[in-house]
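To: structure desk
From: M.T.
Subject: fold request, one chain
Message: Could you run this one when you get a chance? Sequence is below, nothing fancy, just the single chain.
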Amino acid sequence: MKSLKTYLMEAETTYQFRLKVACECNEETLDKLETALEKYELKSLSKPKRTPIQEHPTDFQTLSNAEVHIMDAEVQYPVTAYQLYEYISQVVGIPASHLVVINKDHPEEIAREEALKEEGDEYVTKLDDADYKDADSVKVEDHFGDKYNENMLKDLETRKYEFAKE
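Reply: Done. Structure tokens follow.
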């Protein structure tokens, strides 16, 4: 039978997080971040991936016209996303409003990754298609014309409207 020490030594658990920073990530900031994460026995830190400038970035609704740098970190020491968020904002000097730390297996992150996979490799605009191959799938009669207007008016007649009494 194995001892408890042996089980603990064999059980090597890692904790994965996604770091999102809405400010400039230069070499100095990345070095500070890597040094700060050494406290939690940093196993790996990916290079930052930069998103295009957005009017209101997904996780930073209070910011406007900002680009976001996304990094994946893996640590061996147990820590929560909130503890890591507070620690990074204090030690590295990134403002708390410009930082998001989320678990890699968070349902929202998984949904975003799946949505990106569903988008496909490359988007082809329909205006570039001279033959307009998708013309068969779209019928003009479904969205315009007398038949569409008649159906819309019938639908409006069947609806019941309630008015507030004064």
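Reply (cont.): The mean pLDDT is 84. Let me know if you need anything else for the meeting.
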